[in-house]
Amino acid sequence: MYKPYQPPVVHAYPDIETPEPHVSKFMILLVKLFGRLYLFLFLGIARIFLKGKRYFFDSFDRALRGKSRCILAFRHPCGGEPQMLSWFILFKFRALAKKSGYTFARAPHTVFVYGYEVVRWGGAIARMVMPRLGAMPVHHAKLDTRGMSRIYRAITEGPYPLAIAPEGQVSYTAESIPRLEQGVIRIGFHAADRLQHSGSNCPVEILPVSVHFRYGVWGKLALKSLVGKIEKYTGLGKGNKDAGELSMQERILHCREHILAVNEKRYGLPVYPDRPYTERINAVIDAALNYTEMLLGLQKGRGEIIDRMYHLRQICWDRIYLPGTNVLDDFSPVERSVKDLRAGEAWHAGRHLEVVDFSWYFRGALPSEDAPLHTRIEYVQNLWDFANRTMGGAYANRTNIFPRRVIFRAAPPINLSARLPEYRSNRKAVVRKVMDELKDAYMNCIEEMKKE
Prior knowledge:
By secondary structure, this protein is an alpha/beta fold. The chain has 2 domains: about 20-215 and about 405-450, 3-Layer(aba) Sandwich (Glycerol-3-phosphate (1)-acyltransferase); about 220-395, no CATH class. It is about 55% helix and about 10% strand. It has 16 helices and 10 strands. The strands form 2 sheets. Strands 2, 3, 4, 5, 6, 7, 9 and 10 form an 8-stranded mixed sheet that branches. It starts with 12 loop residues before the first strand and ends with a helix.
């Protein structure tokens, strides 16, 4: 019997409250006991390597001694980077630094900033672990003075570096930079300004960290298996007489074409296979965004696509998890039923937002047959995600190829405090300039990894 790929939400829920972020020694012990197993079983991490060690060690040494404030600006291409970085810094970083002659003033740790929706789709374990490791939630699309106050305190008072992804969310690609948000730079400058006005000479630094994945022979086998899975869901696998005669690249292209055409048809767009892929998927993104706004009873929004998506995502979550509502028993049956219907409508609207979210990033060219294995794997993982989002799935249904090696590569830190005079005279220009430097730092890391 046919079953929906993703069961729909049919009830509204009370708001989710998490403990005030703090660092629990007991939680660190639990992560130490089970964290490595989690990384392998759920994220497929076989080994973790560190490049640019001197930048990493120097930045942490200064921060942990209270001589600087460090913002670890990490790339977010996969989704599991906070878990990987947190475990590595907690349990491997100190011993590795000691081999290079560094003795930290305190046990290294990093507190992460995450979108408030993570503890909603992440479930009970995320709600239990994240705040007890000091992780701090923040809203993307509405005023959050409480969340921002926490972040500024974490930077200005320490004692640990703050970790935040300048991409704002998962970007689905390790070897290009689709977009960066200015929030990290603005937060850093504001914190540096606060420190200087308080009489502190402690500089605020941004440490860029790029993240990369590499695979062995098992990756090739898993790649073929995942292509087969995509063909099964698109109906282009067994039973298709031409499937066995096609190259791997042709098989991938046929699957992409099928998924794209399904989306074009669902939004009433013409299917023109000869039109450029980017042009066609851009039309799907625009149509899906407009359709979401219509489902939510909103007028067509203005501004950048990602900003509109953040705004709509916030509305959807707020209709499913009711802000400021701790119990639902106070509602009459009629009121409760209306809340449930609105939650269901928001869930369905959110399925179209998932298409917008992922498709915006899935606009790159199909890699060649002789492209590096990690490049081909990344593309096929994303192709599955294209099918997954089309069927109503979300990030939680993403498939990653195992096992894999992870490389964290640090770049020279960017000192924001040294630029405060320039920042105070022309904030917008200086923020743009530092954003360009941060992007260049990431691109340099990517180029260095390609050479290796």
